[in-house]
Amino acid sequence: MNIIINTESMIPIYEQIVESIRKKIIVGELRENDALPSVRVLSRHLRISALTVKKAYDVLEQEGLTATIHGKGTYVKSPNPEALQEERRREIETELDALVQKAKRYEITAQEIYDMLGIIMEE
Fold first, then answer.
1. Cβ(16)–Cβ(9) under 8 Å?
2. Longest alpha-carbon distance in the chain
């Protein structure tokens, strides 16, 4: 599994891992019953503490995205369709917010944004 962490980011490493795996589940790159790398394997691959990976896996399990079977590993659970759709909407909303902020800096009106979006959605 390809997870990239930024050690210079203000975002804690475990949160970067959680976000990366969460996104892989949302876009369908990771599906129900797919096994995640073991804590030790992922910690070696990322060259970080196993405790950091364990903390990330614990958060994913608390969110209901994964399940850990003692002695077997951590697996992706079938996400709740409503929760999955809400997460997708939240991701789009975050990106749209950044786009709107950029448009404001460039003095682009809301109507111009609506027009652009209409054109893009037609394609």
1. yes
2. 57
Fold of the 13-76 domain: Arc Repressor Mutant, subunit A (1.10.10)
How far apart are the C-alpha atoms of 80 and 67, rounded to whole Å? 14
- Assess contact for 3 and 24: CB atoms under 8 A: no
DSSP 3-state of 35: strand
pLDDT digits (tens, 9 = 90+) for 94-123: 999 999 999 999 999 999 999 999 999 998
| Cα four-point dihedral sign 85, 86, 87, 89 | positive
The residue extents of the domains of the chain are 13-76, 81-122
Structure tokens at 10: 């203000």
Per-residue model confidence as pLDDT tens digits over 73-90: 999 998 778 877 888 898
